[in-house]
Every structure is written in C-alpha cells, then in structure tokens.
Amino acid sequence: MAPKSPQELFFPHVQLLVIGEELARKKGIQDLFDWIERDSQFRTLFPILVVRNHTAKELLQISTPLEKVPSTKIVGGLESTKKIWGEYASTRADLVIQQLGGEGAYLTGVQITGDPDKGNQITNVQQISPKTTVEIRGLAIFKKGKLKKWLDEDAARGTTWINNELTKTILNLNCEKKKKGISVDMTRSKTKVKAEIKNKKPVFYLTVRSEGDISEVHCPIDLSKHEAIEKLEKQMEKEIKEEIMIAVAAAKEQKSDIFRFGETVNREDPKLWKKIKKKWDDEIFPEAEVNVDVKAFIRRSGLRTKSYIK
User: Fold this and answer.
1) Neighbours of 261 (CB within 10 A)
2) Quick one: which H or E segment has residue 113?
3) At a CB cut-off of 8 Å and minimum separation 6, what does 136 contact?
4) Beta strands 104-113; 133-143: pairing state
5) What is the pLDDT of residues 6-58, one digit of tens each?
6) Is 90's pLDDT higher than 70?
7) CB of 139 within 8 A of CB of 151?
8) pTM listed for this prediction
9) Is pLDDT of 306 > 80?
C-alpha cells in the first residue's frame, strides 16, 4: 500500500476491516490480527465484517448512494441495523481478538446484491434504483479461526439475545388467522446466563426480560382488554425462546461456543473448568443442557387501542 499512497499511512483513522469469505473459510483469520494487536497506532474499536460470497476488494469498490465512501456506508448501515433491527452486533476488533483466544467466534456479514463489476462504476449512484447494493446480512460462525456456517434472521437474532447485545428490535406476532399480524417494537431487553454443576456437568440457565410497545396491528383485536395483552406477551415469550434455541442448536451443531458459556463455567467452578477445558467445544458444549426462561411485557399500545380491521 505504501508505494501507491501519496501520503504516509495513518492507521488510527481505520474505521472498518472486511474479510473475504474464501479467505475466512480456507485459510482462517487467526493470523490476521497479530500486527493490529501489537501496533500501538491501531485503535481496535473498528468493526470487522465478513463479505459473503465475495472478496473484500470487490466490496470496497462498490459505489454507494448516500455515502461517497463505501466503508462509511457499511459502518453506518451496521450501526442502524443494530439499533433498529437488533439482529447483528457490531463485532469490534478488540472483541474479535478476544474471541479468537478460544475455540469459537462469530462475525457479522455484509452482502453484495447484484453485479460487483457494475457496482464499480459511477453510474451505480446515478440511478434511482442502483444495480448493485450492499447490505448487512448474516452472522458467520467460526471454529478454530475458520468460517463454518452462516446464521440468518431468527438464528442470528437469537445469538444477539443470548449475548445480551440486543438493544432494539421488532417482533412480528401472529394474530387470529393473520400471520405476523402484529408488530411489537422491543425497547429494552436484558439476558442473564448462569451455570450450575450437576453430576460434574454444567447446566445453563438463561433468563431473558424484555419490554416492548405495539407498533402495528393488522387484525381485529381489542387492545384495551387485559386478556388480549397477556396473550400477546405469551406469544412474545414463545417467539424469543424459539429464536434462542435455534441459535443454541446451530452453535452446538458446529461445536463452536460463540456464547462464551465456557467462561461462565470457569467463574462457577474453576477447578472443573481446568479438567474439561480441552474437550469443551468438541465434546461437552454440544451435549450441554440449556434452559431458557423468558418474561416479556407490553408496556404501551400506542395512541389507538382498537384496530381498524373488524
């Protein structure tokens, strides 16, 4: 890079690091961060993303509307996705380096939709609907530094629930015969993870407490009735629990402890952890019992209690 740049490279201004999927799958990412971690010029607070089905070079050559610099658009999209939808956490460099110290890790994905060659043209931003777009999508599960599987939608958000990184999201609930007829805007959520040692095996207990407001109603329901609100709260609890269990099953399948359950065991029983540490990811974690208790509350129904639909 240095011979091509007209100025000295200034690493404190790095705001994004992207990794191509082929590199992440075949070679792995464990060797990429040694220099970044050692060099005092780097501030390891920038996010790291994996490019789905493409190389990092192809992504950073896409001309994007609204933002002149592709990396600025990607960072802004990551922040807004995290804040509004809650599926994908901002995987900062320092947290990724910490994760890679263990067996399992996860990184948020970014996807190119359309032809990358056409996206590398100024005409891409001169159209009302660009031919090539970039969006935040997917959660990449890593095992020993190599990408093993992508998680999308419910599984990705379930991971965010478990890791207590969800700030805000929208839950779509079924109402009578209308599928996803009600939307609940989650305003706050808290997840606690505890471990108990039973018969020399860890058992995990996840407690989730969530609150939200009703944002949309597309079915005949009277929200002034307490029974209707209670029914919706039960649906919320069921939906959150299902998403969490989908994420747990996916992580167990890949034998990758992306939830850092091993750290919880270490805090609970350091002596036991020393004995099981080497076989944790491959043998014990995939068989570990996980219990989930969810309590959800609807605090507000908006300015209208009755639906337009009868």
Assistant:
1) 23
2) strand 104-113
3) 49, 74, 77, 78, 81, 88, 108, 109, 110, 111
4) antiparallel
5) 888 888 888 889 999 999 999 988 888 888 888 888 888 888 899 999 999 99
6) no
7) yes
8) 0.85
9) no
Cβ-contact 191, 208 below 8 angstroms: yes
Rounded Cα distance, 202 and 216, in Å: 41
Structure tokens at 77: 């999209």
If phi > 0 it is left, if psi is from -120 to 50 it is alpha, else beta; for residue 199 that is: left
Instruction: Please state, in angstroms and rounded to a whole number, the distance separating the CA atoms of residues 282 and 288.
Output: 11
The lowest-confidence range among 17-31, 83-97, 141-155, 196-210 is 83-97
Terminal-to-terminal C-alpha distance of the chain:
65
**CB under 8 A, 24+ apart: contacts of 38-42:** 39/11, 41/10, 41/11, 41/12, 42/11, 42/12, 42/14, 42/93
Check residue 293 and give its pLDDT: 96
> What confidence tens digit (pLDDT) does each residue in 234-248 have?
999 999 999 999 999
Q: Which residue, chain included where needed, has tokens 């958000």? A: 157
| The two structure tokens encoding residue 254 | 């890949």
